[in-house]
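User: Sorry, what's this?
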Amino acid sequence: MRTIVRGKNLEVPDRVRLYAERKFARLERLLDDHTDAVVELSNEQHRSAEDAHIVDVSLVIDGHTLRSRGTGGSYQAALDVVVDKVERQAIDYKEKPRLRARPEEEKHILRKIADGTSDGPRERRIVKTKRFAIEPMFEEDAAGAMEELGHDFYVFVNAETERVAVLYRRKDGDFGMIEPVVGGDYTPSRRMAK
């Protein structure tokens, strides 16, 4: 397992980095060499002293990302909290049986679809809504933020047009951008052709 420790707007002291690496080493018995743990340390001054130190962890196991957060009066205390959480998540992930269709089942499902005897598609519904604050940024900054988060799309306010835009990763590895317009008020803008 590879552990990456970084600070968000702060320099991580060596003693804290070593402490984090030592704490995450205990997860190596659960995880393989292809697992990455990204540990990000930050500090929020407006919080109480007991939880001003924040540790966010993204654990990538077999392409799946597990995220967790811990807070404490020091980075070491926050690391103690978050390592326990991440260890529980990793154990649950490893022990939970993965539902995979067997080839025979897939053939049966495809045959039912081809014959027209399959159950119709179920009605889609919205099961989750996310709200988040966004600030204007340039396309290149949005691409960097999307890469850092490991997402395939990123919603942002374009600093040049002052409109909401969606940056997404195309199958060929390049980026695409969706710029919604209201009522046909369309004016072409510069594209990311890099």
About this structure: The chain has four helices and eight strands. The first strand starts at residue 2 and ends at 7. Residues 136-178 form a domain with the SHC Adaptor Protein fold (CATH 3.30.505.50). The chain has a mean pLDDT of 80.
